[in-house]
Task: structure prediction
Amino acid sequence: MEFYKPSGACPLNAVLLLLATGIPLTLLGGVVYAFGIVYIPLVYVSVLLTLGYSWLLGTTVGWVAMKGRLRNNRLLTVFGLLMGGMGLYTAWAWDAVARLGTEVGLLGFHPFFLWAYLNFLYENGSWSLDGGAALTGPALAAVWLTEAILVLAISVFVGRSWTANLAYCEKCQLWHEVKQGLLHLASDADAPVWQRVEEGDLGALDQLPFGVDSQGRAIRLDLSLCPECEETGYLTAQAVTYTVDEKGAVSEQARPLFAHAAIARETAAWLCEKACQAAAEAMAAEAAVEEAMAAEAALEGQDHEATAG
Result:
């Protein structure tokens, strides 16, 4: 089977969009982040602010990738690092304003001033754990390093997650739409029939029954199609196992089998027909169960009346 590969394209508007949204967002978000850290000196609050700020930066990167039609994963990583770096820099600039006063102003964004400010905090400390002595030196540097790693890593991870499972139609210049859970086939990934599918024989899918097997196992298929031309289609498969605990809650364990395998338009249409057929059979089975339960309830009612009489 052939698999989807991003074209690597990076339109200029994606770069411009990152700058147009990233700069004002880090300036505004950095205010909330920095002042929150300074004025609410609690460890758990600092952690929550760091995670939230990082998520916001990464979400911006993902949005830029979607709207800017960025199909280059390496550049997307660079975008995430750049956004995270801008977020850290502006947050430190606002930190100086929060601690030293508004008279610092734009001076807080000057790199020489910021370097001197960081050196001052390194020697004298900026905050403490549980009200103890202020952290200084290597201990404080370790906290800063941990913060930087978190911000950069989350910015990259969240940013990449927006388009990680999406294909792109180069002909129509559109992201694909994904039909998640299009089909559940009652099979195990090690079944001989499924092995044929993984070797490229998609016709073997017709030999697998719909639904989940007796052990709660199934192959879940997702279909990715261009919303305009529907000529480019990709199939993603996962092996899933469903379990029910004592309280009746259903949990799911999924294992990827393959992602974005190229399929013909006719095959995509055939899979959609199969999905409709599976849905119709499921509805018919549900109706039969409801009818049987109604009949059983009616018989119990008759027996009760007969006993009472």
